[in-house]
Amino acid sequence: MSRIIYTGAPGNPHWSTNQPMFTLARAQLGALAVRQIANFGASSASAVLGPDLAMPGQQGNNVPTAVGAPWNQLLIGGPPLSFVQDQTYPWIRGHLINGRWGGPGNNWQNLVPLTGVGNANHATVEGYIDGFIAACYQYELGGQRPSWYGVYYCVQASVSPFSDPTMTNAQNLYSYAPEFIRVSWRAVSIVKPVNVSTGNAAGNINNCAVNAVPAFPLGFVLPQLPAVMNGTQVLPAAGNVAGGAVLGALPPGFPAAQANGFDGWIEIHQS
Known about the structure:
The chain is of the alpha+beta class. Helix content is about 10%, strand content about 25%. It has one domain. It is built from 2 helices and 13 strands; from the N terminus they run ββββββββαββαβββ. Strands 3, 6, 9, 10, 11, 12 and 13 form a 7-stranded mixed beta sheet that branches. A two-stranded antiparallel sheet has the order 1-2.
C-alpha cells in the first residue's frame, strides 16, 4: 500500500490510508536531436517511476500526436517523402518514456520515429518494467513499509542515423531516425517522509533522495526477465552493430548498476 506515517508517538505510528503519492518523478526531457537539416526527434528522456503507477486508474495514455516535417510534412531541402508516406516500414512515433507512465506524446522531445519492429521490441522492455512496478506495489501491499521502491528509467537515442552511412544526407528520410535507442534502468528506493500530509508527500517526491538498491528486501519478488532480453542488445536484423555513441547523458544522480538481479540496459536496433 502507498502509505506513510502521518502522526503518532514513537513505537505507535499512525499510517495514512492507501492512496497514490508516488507515480512519476524527476521526469526530464532532453533537447531535440539535430539530424541533417532539422531538429527532429528526441535525444533522451528519463523519469523515476513509482509503485503507485500499478494502482487502479493511475496510468494514462498520452497517445502520440506530435506532427510536422519530416513526420507528415515535406521538409524544404529534405527527403521527397515524409515518414507517413514511406511504404518500406510501418513507422511509429515511439515514446521514450511511455505515455502510460506520464511521458508526453504531444511533442518530439519524448518521441522518435521507430519501425514497427523497433517499437515492438521497446514494448517488450516496457512490459518488463511494468512487471517490476507491479512488484514494487505488491511489496507495498505486504505491510507498512518505511521506503518506496521504484525504477529510474532512461532512454537515449543513438548519434548515428538509421540510414546507410554511404547514403546519409539531407535527402535521405532514414537519416532523420536513430539507428537504435539505448534503454537503462535501475531499481531505486526512497525513504518515506514522516509526519507530513499525503499531499505534501506527493508534492515533494522530486525532493526526496533516490537511493541505489544493492539487494531487495525479504518478500520482494522480481519479475521474470523476457527471453529476448537475456542479452544486452536487441538486434533483430543481420548487420546491426552493438554499441555506439548516444545523445544526451544519463541524468544526474542516476545510480550505478547494482548486482541485484534487476539493474541493466539494452539496445533496441531498428529493422
